[in-house]
Amino acid sequence: MKKLLLSVLFFGTALTGTAQVRPLKVSGRFLATDDNKPFFWLGDTAWLLFGKLNREEAERYLEDRRQKGFNVIQIMVLHTLGAKNAYGDSALVNKNVATPLVTGGADPGNAAAYDYWDHVDYVADRAAAKGLYLALVPVWGSNVKAGHVSPARAEVYTRFLTERYGKRPNIIWLNGGDIKGSDSLAVWQTIGRTLRQTDPHHLITFHPRGRTTSSEWFHTENWLDFNMFQSGHRTYEQDTTASERWHFGEDNWKFAEHDYSLKPAKPTIDGEPSYEQIPHGLHDPKQPRWQAADVRRYGYWSVFAGAFGYTYGHNSIMQMHRQTARQSSYGALDSWQQALNAEGARQMVYLKKLLESRSFFDRVPDQSLVANSGTRYAYLPACRGAAYALVYTYTGRTIEFNARKTGWKKLKAYWYSPKNGKQTTIGTFDAKPVLSFDPPGTPAPGNDWVLIVEKG
Questions:
Q1: For the packed helices 292-304 and 253-260, what is the interaxial angle rounded to 10 degrees?
Q2: What is the DSSP letter of 20?
Q3: Under the phi-then-psi rule, with left for phi > 0, alpha for psi from -120 to 50, and beta for the rest, what region is 319?
Q4: Interior CA angle at 230 toward 228 and 232, to 5°?
Q5: Structural domain contains residue 73
Q6: Are 350 and 418 in contact (CB under 8 A)?
Q7: pTM
Q8: Which one of 332, 356, 380 terminates a domain?
Q9: Span 127-144, pLDDT tens digits
Q10: Is residue 2 part of a domain?
């Protein structure tokens, strides 16, 4: 195996090639780099990357995501306590998180001197070289819920992680892992508090179970920098469990709205919406599958409702599925290599570009701008900055815009396509009480558009 030059790292920036990664911080409802530049989180879930991809494959994946405009990659450090990487290296001694299996040296040409953690180092460094941040889940929630991780062992393991990765500027910590905070609460609190104590420089959140949000358990904890919710993979009709608190169906914007209302104010994000090409409800491959239009809808709905970014996911990418695999989870069809160019993955960057093209830190959700907000797929989320307003329609239905709410005498209007990022001029208008805007095309699910209104 060829040796690749690792980036030179020091806390503050990671420099190599053309990329520069700066540490992140909270800025009001948003994230920013430490030099106060806006940071729109456009994430991808590559949960099993450390275990499934070798160095060359990891390089291919990271470079593809860089080119497509992603800037955060969400990965499990330990999917299971018996985790091994593509080279057969185990992460732990005797499946004990308190005893990571570390060897001397990091020579990929010498199997005895290249271990699981060297491979994690390699991926982290190559990501930094490409301007990518890694949002790392220390240990997936199912292992903890099963009783295999005690608070004492969790503390030792967390200290190992922060000692090893605390000086890398491109790290974000995702405590939890598809689990309710109330399940094994003592362990999650131990990990969160130890992360904050031993690594005060990096952002920390909690990745919760589907149809829940981190704010339910940890909003006031000083180790939680921002909230994360998992809107999940079920349809309106499948979201019927009477015991659940969050009866939001597919309305992921309601999680953003909920977290936005809390005190103290903290940023929030949908860290796991429905994945492209995963079956409705997740588990039955015979069900219809979520498409590119659906992942676009979840993105614009949540961001316009106040989320600071968005995480995309694909069924094959999140598990790094191979066509040669004996079986796949959740009925994955394409290989991860084929899925790199999925329609939704190519389109996510247009959401990021739209938000970055306007003033950033002054954006707030504002439904008063819409006279016909609607429900379910007809919902029209709206947000605004000092000199612009944005309204999203998933179905291409008429938008009744309350122009007088802007306080502007004249305004300019445009259509923006979430499918290709093209902006077309509608015209200039006097600010009448209500202006009607009819999107191009025939109203139907997936004929989605953003109405851009600017001060004239």
A1: 20
A2: E
A3: alpha
A4: 170
A5: yes
A6: yes
A7: 0.93
A8: 356
A9: 999 999 999 999 999 999
A10: no
